[in-house]
Amino acid sequence: MRLFLAIDLPPSLSEGVAEVQELLSDAESLRLTDSEQAHVTLKFLGETPTDRLDTVENAVEDAIEAADVEPFEAEVSGLGVFPSLDYIRVVWAGVTDGAPEMTRLHEALERETTALGFDAEAHEFSPHVTLARLDDARGKDHVRRVVERESPTIGTFRVPEVRLKKSELGSAGPDYETVTRFSL
């Protein structure tokens, strides 16, 4: 199973995600994510044997307890890119309110999962919702203009849980399914 830990955006924000994606849609070589599956990835685990699921779930429970984060409000707003405006691979909307709580959760999950042998993150954690991926440089100028000029607010939502999710890659893109929910 291809697994990751995430905070899902509620269905009420999927229209806001789609509206922001529309600003980017004229860019060539841009692949939009499914606005109805919008989420903030806290930790990507990757391919995980089914027989390790119980161990992973226990580690997630320990991490959430250690992070000591109660349910909180988060706001998704602003735009950015990874790795840079000169070389764009991912276009994202940022998390403003709620970022410290998400960072604490990420750090605790990182400690617990790397102790199990999962790879450590190669980059500093920056809570975000992926809006699109740019396959090559053809759409870079359009994306850069939108990111530099726009600062949309997608909305605010309550975060009551972290989800362990399974990702299945298909011809229409990835499909995500919740495996386990962990209350804060």
UniProtKB/TrEMBL annotation:
<feature type="short sequence motif" description="HXTX 1">
    <location>
        <begin position="39"/>
        <end position="42"/>
    </location>
</feature>
<dbReference type="GO" id="GO:0004113">
    <property type="term" value="F:2',3'-cyclic-nucleotide 3'-phosphodiesterase activity"/>
</dbReference>
<feature type="short sequence motif" description="HXTX 2">
    <location>
        <begin position="128"/>
        <end position="131"/>
    </location>
</feature>
<keyword id="KW-0436">Ligase</keyword>
<feature type="active site" description="Proton acceptor">
    <location>
        <position position="128"/>
    </location>
</feature>
<comment type="function">
    <text>Hydrolyzes RNA 2',3'-cyclic phosphodiester to an RNA 2'-phosphomonoester.</text>
</comment>
<keyword id="KW-0378">Hydrolase</keyword>
<dbReference type="GO" id="GO:0008664">
    <property type="term" value="F:RNA 2',3'-cyclic 3'-phosphodiesterase activity"/>
</dbReference>
<protein>
    <recommendedName>
        <fullName>RNA 2',3'-cyclic phosphodiesterase</fullName>
        <ecNumber>3.1.4.58</ecNumber>
    </recommendedName>
</protein>
<comment type="similarity">
    <text>Belongs to the 2H phosphoesterase superfamily. ThpR family.</text>
</comment>
<feature type="active site" description="Proton donor">
    <location>
        <position position="39"/>
    </location>
</feature>
<dbReference type="InterPro" id="IPR004175">
    <property type="entry name" value="RNA_CPDase"/>
</dbReference>
<dbReference type="Pfam" id="PF13563">
    <property type="entry name" value="2_5_RNA_ligase2"/>
</dbReference>
<dbReference type="GO" id="GO:0016874">
    <property type="term" value="F:ligase activity"/>
</dbReference>
<dbReference type="InterPro" id="IPR009097">
    <property type="entry name" value="Cyclic_Pdiesterase"/>
</dbReference>
